[in-house]
Structures are given as structure tokens and as C-alpha cells.
Design a protein that fits this description.
288 residues, Spore Coat Polysaccharide Biosynthesis Protein SpsA, Chain A, 10 helices, 39% helix, 7 strands, seven-stranded mixed sheet, alpha/beta, 12% strand
């Protein structure tokens, strides 16, 4: 009970990465505000060519606009940079396509504070009823990644492709400085293990995708699985930056974390700062 009584004093942020999600992102923002009004909401518009930014702003979300599409990893990292510089204690990723149910946000928050004090809690579809029919190919891929990551981390990982994840300040500091761009959900778990950050699972139900289509269709599933496994292998030997607080000296162009905003203009300057220095694609990657 002591842990949950501290929740109202925490500064909490929902990061909503979105690319051409004009038909769904407004509803996602509304659902977050209805289910978890204590969370601020920032939508990272990852170079959309539709009305994604306008829909998000119309529902009261702060919007960071990328000038071009970086992909899901770059969008999420911009959200973590915003959380770091804004002085947030907790950040959660809620996908802009409507798959993640904001009604589970306080379940994740409770687990983040009470389940052995993990640094990240993520929602797993496969600790019970997933809430929708998960395609067979995705189940097989998820199972393969689950076996590999469970062996590496020596803990049970049942849904490594879930992007519905909540981190504390240590996780925010790590992901603001270094976040995978190619296959972020799976690789981020390996990063947390490499930095000795603790992970916990909570069963959640999810929705089928509410709008648009996934970038990974059935013909690409086998190719995706091979590339993710290769990325995991390479990640085992990759040198990692130390997750430290941005001080203005540890990274060019990074300002110290901002205090609580007194005026909307302060928030606008923070958004502009993050948008001017988004995470760059790796190895010539243009995102997607």
C-alpha cells in the first residue's frame, strides 16, 4: 500500500508513437485521458503525411513532429528524450494504432512499484487470454524470440514483441541515450539485461490493430525473424553507453532536464528541442 500511495506524486508520461494514424490516434489519446488522467500524453508524429498531428493536438496531446520517418525506434526514443528532459519519473509506450488498452496503465504502474521494484514492466498477451486472435505466424515468431531471450536473460519472457511497456527513471535515462532502431521491442529487453535493469511481466489483453496495417505482413515474417535473431546475436557483443542523467555535457545538444513547466511556452520549447535532434537512423537507415 505504501508504494501505491506514492503514485499521485510521480510525474508520469504516456509516449504515443504514430505514423499515418489519423484514423486512430485521437481515440488513443482520449482513452488514455479517460483511463489514466494522471498521465501526460506526448504523441511523436514520425513524419506522417496525413492528419496524425492535427488529430492528436485536437485531443490535447503535446505533439513532437519528425521532419521525416525514422521508424518506430526513433519515434520512441524521441519520446524518452522528452521524458528525460521534462523530469518525468515514469514513462509508458502506448502504440498509436489502438492495440494497447489504456485501462491497463495502472496495472503496469502498480507492478512497477510493488513487484520487487523492477525498472521496466511490460504487458504480456501470453500469460493468459490475449484478447484477440494473434496470427499463427506471429505466435511462432514470438515463441522463438521468447525461448532465445529467456535463455539469455535467465528469466521467463513470454511476449518479447510487446511494445506496451512502462519504465522508471532509470529506464528513461537508458532509452533516451540508446534505443534500438531496427527491432526495438526485442532488442530493448536485451539492452535492459546488459545494463542489469530488472524486468517484470503483467498479463494484459490487447486489441486487434484498429486502423491501417502492420509493416510486417505474413510473407515478411520469416525474414523478420531471421533479422531479429541476428540483431540479438550482434547485440550480445555491442558496446553500450552508460545510462546517466543528461547534464548538457554528456551528449552534444542535450539540455539539462527541465523543471515542472510554469508556462505552456516552456513546454513548446522542449518539444522544439527534441524535434530538432531526433535519433538518427543507423547505417543509412531511412526508417519505415
Amino acid at each position: 500500500m505504501a508504494a501505491t500511495s506514492d503514485a499521485p506524486r510521480l510525474r508520469k508520461l504516456a509516449i504515443v508513437p504514430a505514423y499515418n494514424e489519423a484514423g486512430m490516434v485521437g481515440r488513443v489519446v482520449r482513452d488514455i485521458r479517460r483511463s489514466a488522467p494522471d498521465f501526460d500524453v506526448v504523441v511523436v508524429d514520425d513524419g506522417s503525411t496525413d492528419g496524425t498531428a492535427a488529430e492528436a493536438e485536437s485531443e490535447g496531446a503535446v505533439v513532437i513532429r519528425h521532419p521525416f520517418n525514422l521508424g518506430i525506434g526513433g519515434a520512441v526514443q524521441s519520446g524518452y528524450k522528452y521524458a528525460l528532459r521534462g523530469g518525468y519519473d515514469v514513462a509508458v509506450q502506448v502504440d498509436g494504432d489502438g492495440q494497447h488498452k489504456p485501462t491497463h496503465l495502472h496495472d503496469l504502474l502498480a507492478a512497477l512499484q510493488t513487484s520487487g521494484e523492477p525498472d521496466m514492466v511490460y504487458g504480456s498477451r501470453f500469460r493468459g487470454d490475449p484478447g484477440y486472435r494473434v496470427p499463427f505466424g506471429r505466435r511462432i515468431g514470438n515463441l522463438i524470440f521468447s525461448v532465445v531471450l529467456s535463455a539469455i536473460t535467465r528469466q521467463r519472457i513470454t511476449d518479447p514483441t510487446s511494445g506496451f511497456r512502462m519504465t522508471n527513471r532509470r529506464g528513461i535515462e537508458l532509452f533516451a541515450r540508446d534505443y534500438p532502431h531496427d527491432y526495438p521491442e526485442v532488442e530493448a529487453l536485451l539492452m535492459l539485461h546488459a545494463h542489469r535493469l530488472r524486468v517484470h511481466e503483467v498479463h494484459v489483453q490487447m486489441n486487434a490493430r484498429g486502423f491501417g496495417r502492420s509493416s510486417i505482413d505474413y510473407p515478411r515474417s520469416a525474414y523478420y525473424m531471421v533479422k531479429v535473431l541476428l540483431a540479438l546475436f550482434v547485440g550480445l557483443f555491442r558496446r553500450r553507453p552508460t545510462p546517466i542523467e543528461a547534464t548538457g555535457e554528456d551528449e552534444p545538444g542535450v539540455e539539462p532536464p527541465a523543471p515542472d513547466w510554469a508556462e505552456p511556452a516552456d513546454r513548446g520549447r522542449l518539444v522544439e528541442d527534441v524535434a530538432r535532434s531526433p535519433a538518427a537512423p543507423r547505417d543509412g537507415e531511412a526508417g519505415g
